[in-house]
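Readers of this paper often ask what the protein records in our data store actually look like. This encoding replaces a full spatial description with a residue-level series of whole-number codes. For reference, a complete record is included directly beneath this paragraph.
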Amino acid sequence: MTKMEKSHSTIAIFDSGVGGLSIYAELKKLLPREKIVYLADQKNCPYGEKAQDEVRLLTLKSLTFLTSFKPKLIVVACNTATVAGIDFYRKKFPQIPIVGVVPVVKTAAEMTKNGRIAILSTPSTSKSKYQKELIEKHGNTKMIWNIACPNLVSHIERGIVSGKKIEEELIQILKPVINNRCDTIVLGCTHYPFLKKT
């Protein structure tokens, strides 16, 4: 890649692991001609069980590396990293637009028919101030079950997206969803779409 090709020619995507590939796939559909660089911090994955300060520092290190590609946009394709510090990253790199992903509480609140919503996310995202504020702001008239899913990212990173082991885990996770007749489920982690079929 020449300097000319490298300069402001890419969209950079960051995730703790393979979850951001779900974002990458959608971006390629929408913007097929764009050059995209993808970075997964699989050395430190999963982020969802780490303290938010640690997640912020790990994300900052990865975003610093991505700035070497002189991207025109950085996508933090990790809910956990986004809720841990999206404003912090934007202050560190004010010259680059940075977008993140967060659980789609607002969309779910608009879609639900019976007002019962389940949010499946990593433990860190689930207990974050950011997610609590999303729920208060957009779901205050709804019944919301905020469900932490501690093992799913690790399973997905190992390629376990179907079979008895993951089915048994999903049955346990989804019990409150079924018992409380939730009609809308928010997948609050970019890894989770890999489990939709299961």
User: Anything to note?
Assistant: The chain has a mean pLDDT of 93.
